[in-house]
Amino acid sequence: TKAFQNNDIKELCKLKGVGPATASAILSLYAPDKYAFMDDEIIECLYDGKRGYTLKIYNEVNDKCIELANELNKKESKKKKQDDENWTPRRVGKTLWTGARLSAHGLDWFMKDDDDDDDDDDDDDESSDSSD
Q: Mapping DSSP to helix (H, G, I), strand (E, B) and coil, where does residue 83 land?
């Protein structure tokens, strides 16, 4: 399927003004189960090198989104309801983008460690015990 994916992107890139990032946006809407959108935040999260918009970088990022989607679907398959949405590369990408945007705006409180929450709860319990 990777050969087909490369071919799909290369065909769209033949259009004037369309590169891998724009092609990935189109393809992620057409086939979200195969393509993630090549967004800056997704590249930053999943690519170790310098950010770029090449087919090579897109393939690496998209492969990681596919792996993450497959892993999430495996983990959730046991507790999944019939009408739950499956994880796709596009959904993984949207989730990473959302987390990156929230973090960029200082709204990363949702990323707290469970241990941090436990410590806070213990402190609250102690202070409420001493007031009794």
A: coil
Q: Please name the residues in contact with 64: beta carbons below 8 A apart, sequence gap of 6 or more.
A: 46
Which residues are CB-contacts of 45 (< 8 A; sequence separation ≥ 6)?
A: 96, 100
For the chain, the straight-line distance linking the first and the last C-alpha, in angstroms and rounded, comes to 66
Return d(Cα 42, Cα 97) in angstroms, integer.
6
* Residue in the block written with tokens 């090198």: 49
The C-alpha atoms of residue 41 and residue 92 are separated, in whole angstroms, by 12
pLDDT mean values, one per 10 residues, the chain (132 residues) = 79 95 95 94 93 93 96 82 80 93 79 53 47 46
Distance CA 37, CA 43 (A): 10
Q: How far apart are CA 90 and CA 102, in angstroms?
A: 18
Whether 46 and 67 have beta carbons less than 8 Å apart is answered as no
Report which secondary-structure segment, H or E, holds 123: helix 114-130
What residue has token string 């090549």? Answer: 38
